[in-house]
Amino acid sequence: MNQAVPAPHPVGSPSATLAVTGMHCASCVRRVETALAAVSGVASAVVNLAGERADVVLEPHVDRAKVLGEVVAAVARTGFVAPPRRVEIGVEGMHCASCVRRVEAALAAVPGVSAAAVNLATERATIEAQSWVETDALDRALAEAVATTGFKASGLADRSREDRAAAKADEYAHLKRDLAVAAALCVPVILIEMGGHLFGAHLLDAHHGAASWWLRVVSFVLTTAALFGPGLRFFRAGLPALWHRAPDMNSLVVLGATAAWAYSTVSTFAPSLLPRGAADVYFEAAAAIVVLILLGRTLEARAKRSTGAAIERLVNLRPRIARVERDGRFVETALELVRAGDVLRVHPGESVPVDGVLRDGSSDVDESMLTGEAMPVAKSAGDRVTGGTVNGTGAFAFTAEKVGAETVLAQIIRTVEAAQGAKLPIQAQVDRVTHW
Fold first, then answer.
1. Measured between alpha carbons, how far is 336 from 407 in angstroms, rounded to an integer?
2. Is residue 54 a contact partner of residue 4, using CB atoms and an 8 Å limit?
3. Whole-angstrom Cα distance, residue 35 to residue 70?
4. Apex 199 CA angle, 198 and 205, nearest 5
5. Closest to 57 (Cα-Cα) out of 110, 1, 12
6. Distance between CA atoms of 370 and 412, rounded to whole angstroms?
7. Range with lowest mean pLDDT among 4-8, 214-218, 401-405
8. What is the mean pLDDT of residues 338-364?
9. CA 224 to CA 196: how far, in whole Å?
């Protein structure tokens, strides 16, 4: 049957292509075309049955997002589906529910986006967009939307899993170091402030004279070092957020700690500027804020690092090198270069690179990564083997059937990643509450 050829798009007229699934015949095509042509603002519509798509040309000067939203609704009324496109991006720099809600709101406001969910632990945003949105335009719009919130968007494919894991480990190490330094600076300040209560008179009271003043100076030096040393990360993130009129937890830390530090500094070096009896110091509050928030960030970084541990273990089940038959002999080849139909050889104790069917040889294969059963399974010619399982004492050759993203192990990894990135309904409700 001859397929309809899309009409040329008039110059200056916006156009779009969207996927349409569920059609089976020319009658289906006609019904969808009629429904689309009836939408106000649509100049013409041509549906391709084989390609399962609809090419829509809009009238000039219409609201493109609004009209195409009505086009999707029109497809649904015919009984077919214009499936949304699922996109995942990384979002770096989030630290609290307020960050999550702000990024979600910015992403959901992008034209063509129907839903957006952000997971703080995995630093990942999952977006559902209408199929008519062009990929490049959507990627740019999402990155710009994240940038307006003061965070940074990154493609999940921009860095390997190993690089992302290394970055999380590095962040955790830096936070532990900063926490240790801040705690070492904070403890003397708290002892100076709180220790005086043991003696019935505060060490920093004015009647202690010079001794009290020098203790205040010591507290000032230690607190300043903590606030503008380990605590400098809060200023780097919090001040831009204030500039964007979107304050977050970093902004609150900056405002609270700086207010306590600034008031105490004036009270120490220029008490005459304050009302009589109000020249108190709160250096311990500023220092404690830095330490406590850094403690929370350190625990958060450890949690983020642990979320990737399961994925790393699964990825490590897959060997990086496979022995592939080339010109009658087996040569070591990068796993990414293996193709369906290649013949591979597995030696004793090695992991099976990809899914396939045994061609010759026999062995016992440990399939506990799939079944949880520790007892090896006997394999001989004609039996299937799964990538990531471990060969026993025998050697065999097999024909690759599924490689790359099609293997069972790759599907398991994707399932685990999706589970980690998913958000329970109650979690979304908690995010909305804690945002405020």
1. 12
2. no
3. 10
4. 110
5. 12
6. 9
7. 4-8
8. 92
9. 22
Q: Quick check: 194 and 284 in contact, CB under 8 A?
A: yes
258 vs 237, residue with greater confidence: 258
- How many angstroms separate the CA atoms of 204 and 210, rounded? 10
Across the chain, mean pLDDT equals 81
Angle in degrees, CA 138, 142, 145, rounded to 5:
140
HEC assignment per residue over the chain? CCCCCCCCCCCCCCEEEEECECCCCHHHHHHHHHHHHCCCCEEEEEEECCCCEEEEEECCCCCHHHHHHHHHHHHHHCCCECCCEEEEEEEECCCCHHHHHHHHHHHHCCCCEEEEEEECCCCEEEEEECCCCCHHHHHHHHHHHHHHCCCEEEECCCCCHHHHHHHHHHHHHHHHHHHHHHHHHHHHHHHHHHHHHHHCCCCCCHHHCHHHHHHHHHHHHHHHHHHHCCCHHHHHHHHHHHHCCCCCHHHHHHHHHHHHHHHHHHHHHCHHHCCCCCCCCCHHHHHHHHHHHHHHHHHHHHHHHHHCHHHHHHHHCCCCEEEEEECCEEEEEEHHHCCCCCEEEECCCCECCCEEEEEEECEEEECHHHHCCCCCEEECCCCEECCCCEECCCCEEEEEEECHHHCHHHHHHHHHHHHHHCCCHHHHHHHHHHHC
Q: What would the 3-class secondary structure string for 277-309 be?
A: CCCCCCHHHHHHHHHHHHHHHHHHHHHHHHHCH
pLDDT above 60: residue 160: no
Backbone angles phi, psi at 229, to 5 degrees: -110, -95
Residue 119 β-bridge partners: 124
* Residue 145, amino acid: A
Residue appearing with tokens 């000067």: 61
Q: Which of 357, 431, 405 is nearest to 97 (CA)?
A: 431
Q: Note the pLDDT tens digit of each residue in 89-143.
A: 888 878 777 788 888 888 988 888 888 888 877 788 888 887 777 777 788 888 8
Place of tokens 């399939």: 367
pTM: 0.61
Higher pLDDT, 246 or 89: 89
Q: Which is nearest to 104 in space by CA: 65, 139, 145, 133?
A: 145
- Asked whether residue 400 carries a pLDDT value surpassing 90, the answer given is yes
